[in-house]
Write a structure and sequence with these properties.
Layout lengths: L2 H4 L39 H6 L8 H27 E3 L4 E5 L9 E3 L4 E8 L5 E12 L8 E7 L10 E6 L4 E12 L10 E6 L6 E3 L36 E8 L9 E3 L5 E9 L16 H23 L6 H34 L11 E3 L13
Antiparallel strand pairs: 1-14, 2-13, 3-10, 4-9, 4-11, 5-8, 5-13, 6-7, 6-9, 11-12
Helix pairs in contact: 3-4, 3-5, 4-5
């Protein structure tokens, strides 16, 4: 389960009250990871909420569930906006191409091993998303050249022997062909013992020759390189024109035994394989813990309180704006409006005055994820990127 789902799953319960005056609670209504319950907010109770239902409103428990869901969305949106205003992205996000084809016709490369292709090793980025969207092929015309090749995608050997995905790709002599695929999202933080690494490889046909696709074509801008001892994604050097180099390093690779792919040779030519990819970071991991601990983690505890106050605010907003007449809005409308305002103030105080400053500070900016960095106030880049 990803951090962004688990940190809000059952963050507050709906009710643990056994009340004969309302319909039976659905399964899970009394589950609360934080120990907080919506109907236990000061000023709220099940009897009041049940009595204020409008005809066709869907019932008490549906009303409470919708209020909680919307509160979670509101809390995330408020925190994301506030943290974004007070910090900078740690890495640039967007689309990029791994493997250059600018000098594709310059030369040919004979493919003499059982497997050839491209390997990519990424930084460990909690919240990072590495998505392959299109695969390029570039081959020289040869006798008996087939119309397609089959490309397999492998994880590290320890993660499994079977390919993660396989693609039949068209090839045409002396042409660069791009094939859009169903986006393939590859994890960036799933291995505790090493950095994520992937292989995009195929078995060459007889006489196969690749065009001159390269990782570094010497065409200007940042010159990407492969160095396991000092990966380029650790460097604070500007990666002009190579957005992907802040997230990963890549190289052409070849070998004869798939089980030994970790030790295969690496080189600048990519054996006619190129990738169009997208790198993104889930900003919600700035405040979402993978396994929230509401007993000892003060940030998560305050987060749960903020969600509960917002859910209470949502319930009262719905009630006060309803066109249905009920005795509570008729006799206690002013008191309920004051209570709604109090809930809103408590929500904003916890988000804007505590959670946002705390999670934007240098000490906590990557408390749970790795998407943000301290705001650059001097025009200089920070060189501390966690791997």
């Amino acid at each position: 389960m990803s951090a962004t789902t688990s940190c809000f799953e059952d963050v507050i319960g709906l009710s643990r009250t056994d009340c004969p005056c309302v319909d039976d609670a659905p399964v899970g209504a009394n589950v609360s990871e934080s120990g907080l319950y919506l109907d236990e907010l000061p000023g709220l109770n099940l009897r009041l909420l049940n009595a204020t239902q409008a005809c066709g409103s869907g019932g008490l428990w549906e009303k409470l569930e919708i209020a909680r869901e919307n509160a979670i969305e509101d809390t995330q949106a408020e925190l994301m906006a506030c943290i974004a205003a007070n910090t900078d992205p740690r890495r640039g996000i967007g689309q990029a191409q791994i493997g250059e084809d600018k000098k594709a016709t310059a030369s040919a490369h004979k493919l003499r091993h059982a497997y050839h292709g491209l390997t990519v090793q990424t930084a460990k980025v909690l919240g990072g998303r590495f998505t392959v969207e299109s695969i390029g092929t570039a081959f020289k015309p040869t006798s008996g050249m087939p119309a397609t090749i089959t490309l397999h995608v492998y994880d590290r050997v320890e993660a499994g022997a079977s390919p993660m995905a396989s693609y039949v790709l068209p090839i045409t002599g002396n042409q660069v062909r791009w094939t859009d695929i169903e986006p393939l999202e590859l994890p960036m933080s799933h291995l505790p013992w090493s950095n994520p690494r992937y292989w995009f490889v195929f078995e060459p046909y007889d006489g196969a020759q690749a065009m001159n696709s390269q990782i570094n074509c010497g065409c200007g801008g940042f010159a990407p390189y492969w160095d396991p001892a000092r990966p380029q994604y650790e460097s604070a050097q500007q990666k002009t024109g190579k957005l992907w180099a802040d997230w990963a390093m890549a190289a052409g690779t070849y070998g004869d035994d798939l089980a030994e792919r970790d030790t295969w040779a690496t080189e600048n030519p990519t054996a006619g394989i190129m990738l169009r990819v997208r790198f993104e970071c889930d900003e919600r991991t700035s405040f979402c813990a993978d396994s929230p601990n509401y007993a000892s983690d003060h940030v998560q505890k305050v987060l749960a309180h903020a969600v509960r106050f917002r859910a209470g605010y949502n319930l009262l907003t719905d009630l006060l704006h309803s066109t249905d007449i009920n005795r509570w809005t008729m006799t206690a409308g002013d008191a309920m409006e004051a209570l709604r305002k109090e809930y809103d103030e408590n929500f904003l105080k916890r988000v804007r005055e505590y959670l946002c400053p705390e999670l934007s500070s240098g000490a906590n900016i990557n408390r749970y994820g790795d998407c943000r960095k301290c705001k650059d106030t001097h025009g200089m880049r920070r060189g501390t990127i966690r791997n």
